[in-house]
Specification:
The structure is a homodimer of 409-residue chains.
Chain A lengths: L30 H8 L6 E2 L12 H19 L9 H15 L8 E5 H13 L5 E6 L3 H8 L4 E8 L2 E2 L1 H10 L2 E6 L13 H14 L2 E5 L15 H4 L4 E6 L10 E5 L2 H15 L4 H13 L2 H26 L5 E2 L7 E5 L6 H10 L2 E2 L1 E2 L12 E5 L5 H19 L2
Parallel strand pairs in A: 1-12, 3-4, 3-6, 6-7, 7-8
Antiparallel strand pairs in A: 2-9, 4-5, 8-9, 10-11, 11-14, 13-14
Helix pairs in contact in A: 2-10, 4-5, 4-9, 6-7, 11-13
């Protein structure tokens, strides 16, 4: 299965020939989305996706907020608005950074985006020239690999250890070439579930500071740490070199595509130009609904519910891994988020596991697409946020059986 | 006033140095948005913007649709969804192409975007390599100039006549270099208000067919033709070489950022990859609300109301131009849309008119940013959709006075 989409020159039906920009040949199609298409059948137990639990979306609260915005200020909420986004919502995000992480972020340093995926596109537009060197965790988030690929950088993967990136390897990379930025997910990383330790964060900051490298801190899962105790943002250690991306998808609702990027003023100025050129501004109605919801509901209490539920689902999945899987299989122990990373013995193929498990109506996500330099063929990502206890127990039981049959003679 | 944003190397407050991608130096900031900031004061009568009339947004209809979606299928409407967009909405758009323009477009050839501005970004991503030659109307839509600039093409402006682009000039350009695409707005063009005649459309199609050049048909204003009689889409004449961009901003509500692109299958395949990398998918809640609204309301009757109102506002503005302005000033006679293009005598400066008029609390949009090759210093765009009779009469009266005082000794 190739990650690179071909550069089709011809429509197979009409025979019309087209020429596409070279960047398209470098952009991997989302393997995840391709797999999700296969796994959409209702009889499939899917650990392949990355959906938050639908039961933890406060539909009624959002309905009331939506109704209220449209009743009280509909003409304005449905009109064009500013590129930067709704100021009270940006102020809310800034206040939350202060309260949760002790960070001083001005609302002027925040831009509302169409989900946090769009932050990656805007960062690519603004910071990545063709052939620029960028560093990324190994394994790294597929969405970032896709978004950045369009700007044709040279990727330098930095191995992820159990407590964060291999800083020695990063340091070596930074000495060997001018690295523009390092993209990472310090809290409950996608795909691995790993959280950087505070020690690792400080080491990392020291290297990036010395080398003048920006850190792109994707914090999609920071609110979902099971303990509720947040580790410091990299912006604490690297105030002028950190760009944070955030998301309401995991704490409010993904369908509204509400994310944001927080960046130092000089970078923000460019991000706003790029945003304007990309889509003028984010959905203003949804910005107003999100703010109205946050104003009238206790988001902290809602987030505590999500944390408790995901921690429980994660525990059930890990219990199944411990009790049912062969001893040669290992896995990460997430402190939060939505994913566990499973490593099969060397030589085993997670693509084969995927195919065999699908026959038993269980879907997993093979790990290869998360490696920009190949490898990872014996790894896979399991999502626990979108399954109940029962489906986790049933699905993991079947998966254990598949792996035992395949690799234990 | 320079169109090019500088490439700031340094944060003026922190002293931190940053390096931006070269493409950012080539992207004009939106002059319109900079001007709109100046003109946001409530005492200003603004003909500078491009807002639809807020009185013609059916707020109550949208509130009912939103409530209904969230009541009946909220968990799903708030979850992640497919990159392509909500199938029933795409089917509605396809059906409307058939009914309104006689076009056979499959829903598979339609992708829902974050406003029609995003179509331009996606088209740039997929089709424009650095240095590629693209043709654009002169004057051309600023949003397209901005979006495409990020992909660093070489622009070739094609003069716009009263009945469409100067086809001889386009033909010459196509002979002098390999033109990748021609971007145009055949119906009630932004900024000029010009509509291509059917004869011009056929001539244009013949040239593009011969030269193998794609046509990007921005049809943001197609539904707003005052007479209700649509001219054929360029896809009628160039079925495999036309990409159409569409928008609900002018007929439903801009704040929901709902647009779409319709393209032949081989191009659509690449657009979907680019969309996925850019922001996964468009706001799903808003897609559901838009569809729910369209299902339960008579959109044709609503559009007829918008057409009648805009035609009336356009007539009032043209009457003021005819009765109050010096004879040396000329203007276009739009068949639809939201804009009139005004040409002052050679040597007059619309930037000076802008500055003088602003002192009398009237805002106009100088025409220069719509010219990729300079020029247009004596032109300006006037918007009539977002003003009442009274504000048009008062504002145009003041503007006439300013111009008379400046240019008639």
């Amino acid at each position: 299965m190739s990650q690179l989409s071909a550069l089709p020159g011809k429509d197979t039906v009409t025979g019309q020939r087209y020429t596409f920009a070279p960047r398209m040949a470098k952009t991997p199609k989302s393997f995840i989305r391709e797999i999700l298409k296969v796994t959409e059948r209702p009889e499939i137990i899917s650990f392949a996706g990355g959906l938050p639990s639908p039961a933890l979306i406060d539909v009624e609260g959002i309905r009331i907020a939506s109704n209220s915005v449209l009743e009280q200020d509909g003409q304005c909420a449905l009109q064009y608005s500013t590129t930067e986004g709704y100021l009270p919502l940006r102020q809310f995000i800034a206040d939350r950074y202060k309260k949760r992480l002790g960070l001083s972020v001005s609302p002027d340093e925040i831009l509302i985006t169409n989900g946090s995926q769009q932050c990656l596109d805007l960062i690519g537009k603004v910071l990545i020239g063709t052939g620029d060197h960028i560093a990324i965790e190994r394994p790294g988030y597929l969405g970032a690999i896709q978004a950045f690929s369009l700007y044709e950088p040279e990727f330098h993967p930095v191995p992820l250890m159990n407590d964060g990136p291999d800083t020695a390897s990063l340091d070596e990379t930074c000495h060997s070439c001018p690295v523009r930025l390092f993209y990472g997910v310090p809290n409950s990383q996608n795909p691995s579930g790993i959280t950087y330790s505070e020690k690792r964060r400080k080491e990392l900051a020291a290297i990036l500071r010395n080398q003048g490298v920006l850190f792109v801190e994707d914090d999609a899962y920071g609110e979902l740490n099971f303990s509720g105790n947040s580790l410091p943002s990299m912006r604490t250690f690297l105030p002028h070199q950190t760009i944070i991306t955030g998301s309401f998808s995991k704490i409010l609702a993904p369908g509204m595509r509400m994310g944001w990027v927080a960046a130092p003023p000089a970078i923000m100025e460019q991000l706003v130009v790029a945003k304007q050129a990309s889509d003028l501004h984010s959905n203003y109605l949804s910005q107003r609904i999100a703010y109205e919801y946050l104003l009238h509901n206790d988001i902290d209490s809602h987030i505590r519910k999500i944390r408790a539920a995901y921690q429980h689902q994660c525990d059930v999945m890990i219990r199944m891994l411990r009790e049912e899987f062969p001893e040669t299989v290992s896995w990460t122990h997430p402190l939060g988020g939505m994913f566990i990373w499973v490593t099969l013995p060397e030589g085993c193929s997670s693509m084969e596991v995927f195919e065999q498990a699908l026959k038993e109506n269980v879907a997993v996500l093979p790990g290869m697409p998360f490696y920009v330099d190949g490898g990872g063929t014996h790894t896979m990502r399991l999502n626990f946020s979108n399954s109940t206890d029962d489906t986790i127990i049933t699905g993991m039981g079947r998966l254990a059986g598949v792996i035992r049959r395949m690799y234990i003679p």
